[in-house]
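#onboarding

Welcome to the new folks! Below is a worked example of what a typical request in this channel looks like: someone posts a single protein sequence, and someone else replies with the predicted structure as tokens. Don't worry about understanding the tokens yet, we'll cover that in week two.

Example request:
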Amino acid sequence: MQDLIGRTLGHYRIAEKIGAGGMGEVYRAHDVRLDREVAFKVLPVGVSEDPGRLARFELEAKALAKLTHPNILQIFEFGEDQSVSYAVMELLEGETLRERLAQGPLPWRRALEVGAAIADGLAAAHAEGIVHRDLKPENVFLTVDGRVKVLDFGLARIELQDPSAVTGAPTETAPGTLLGTVGYMAPEQVRGEVADSRSDVFALGAVLYEMVTGRKAFVRATQAETLSAILRDHPPEPSACSTEIEHGVDRVLGRCLEKQPRERFQSASDLAFDLRALLTEGAGSRKAVQAADDDRPSVAVMPFANLSADPEQEFFCDGIVEEIINALAQVRGLRVVARTSAFAFKGKKEDVREIGAALAVGAIVEGSVRKAGDRLRITAQLIDVRDGSHLWSERFDRRLEDIFEIQDEIALAVVENLEVKLLGGERAAVVKRHTDNLEAHNAYLIGLFEWYKMTPEGFERCQELFQEAIDLDPKFAPPYAQLADSFTSVTWWSDQAPKDALAQALPLVEKALSLDPELAHAHSVVGHTTSFFLRDWVAGEKSLRRAVQLAPNDALAHTYLGLLLMMDGRWAEASQRARTALRLDPLSPANSVWAGAVLTFSGEPEEGLSVIERHVVMTPQLWMPSYWLSVGLACTGRFDEARTAAEKALELAGGSSLTHCNLAMICYHRGDQNAGDAHFDTLQRRAQKGYVSPMFLAWLHLARGEPEDALRRTAEALVANDPWVSSHRLMCPAIVPAEPLVDDLLSTALP
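Example response:
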């Protein structure tokens, strides 16, 4: 390599060499245009003249340029000057993980924290179709301020939308090609097969193993022996290397290092989730404002009191709280209780200690709003639930147009006073503003007020208001997603044709994402719709994981993902998501009973039914808890109790088609043919006049011993994109007989 020190390439003055690797040398350089220090990576002369190596270097630059994540090295520019090809990146101060490991293993809790951060970075890369393929301690950097960065995507496998954009750099590696670093390759890489995201999970497992034990998992005396060990051997459990290591570490790392990709964590996001859950389970002491069931500081934002003369301003008060909750929900290091659970205490005079115990939080935010004309007075205080002491309080006397700034200030004050460290990009997410149009904002807030009523009238009114918000500000993203969600949600529980809902919802959610690609709720709606309606389970899971990544405190996103995992038989992961959703939103009837259903059908029936039964008692006026209780009881063989719950659900739901179908199936199973036929006839008559889910009729035909009719109705459901298709495996054979012809027809439609 020619001497570059002191030269200027592009607008970068080279200062000193700071590193080298197989894909290039790295220098410290000064950006004379922007007056900043950068890392300047170049290919050696000779290699840069090799079209294949140059193409792969450019491919790395393009891969990194697609990624903006706090745990991935940021790239600024790719270029060529004076026959030197280079990439310009952020300059990091600190040491590689390899350099740190030269001092010995990390404390196991610190190792898991680093591992979770690496997994977060890999998850972001995988979401863009990028597989690293060469993760090792040399490619992980620990900065002096505690950040973790994944480096060197030089061997990345990238699914480019336009492969021709990088001439000479194929996106696929020829079968049989061995790529990666021996000792960290997954078995499929050793065999020369195509690597995918699960190969990176294996490599991260090997890195984690080395972090906690100080030993390499598979390295042997020779390269051939190491490759053989990767294919055949299992390393000693970490807890056998040190009594200080929790046994749960054995389970997580063992799953990472499974020989078959299907046996590993199926995504880096899942691995990150399990690592943090393990940290929670092994937590010792906690800060005063941390709840006993979570390692993060936790808070609930309670309904603000309406001190205005006009009771119609209630929506405005609720809307302020909604916005503060949504802002805080972006902070990964903070657990924020969902609105539905916090609002269960609205109008009640509960002691803060009782609220803290019920919601399992360490702090609550209380406040009041007085609105007179265009003037606002808002008070807010952060309270430690242990002793009722005030951690922070403030009064805001402002104009109505300042409401956005007030919400931002309250959210940031909560984060600061709970001593939560904001990661890269999180501060911007907390204060992110989707509209400056106050009228549009108000229409949206009133729409949310109506949405949370969860009544037919509320759904109809919220749709009008979300549309009004869109009309007032066509660039306001959240109402598009909320409106789309309202259309698909109603389809599950009423006789509305799915294709009509999809025709309305899909353009709306696409518009929401075009306006804000990081709107978590929009990704959640896409994931739910793509999987349960369009039955593209892979794409749906990707969107749901993206929603959880963007808003880790969104209980419904965890529940939706848990439902999908349950359908796919990934029961351990599904149960974990359900429990997370319950921690985030413990008092929401809808979220809790869905999470309870996930637990019930994922092999935890006692726990799941207990959750559902609690909400049957808490909300005796709602039909959904009784419905899910009846389904869960029936699927666990308790049919007499199931029938009682099904009859109650039918009554509370006003005779909806779903509850008629459920009760009919239970009646047929118990041999009460006449009662079953009466409900079946009701659905048949409705289907002659309008849409009734063909799956309801298919299940009843199976219960009646009419397989050909069941097959016909199932085919109709598939054509109609009916979401109830996804529930077939829950119903058969637990409640209705299985039928091979129907199962074969659905084999490609279900995960």
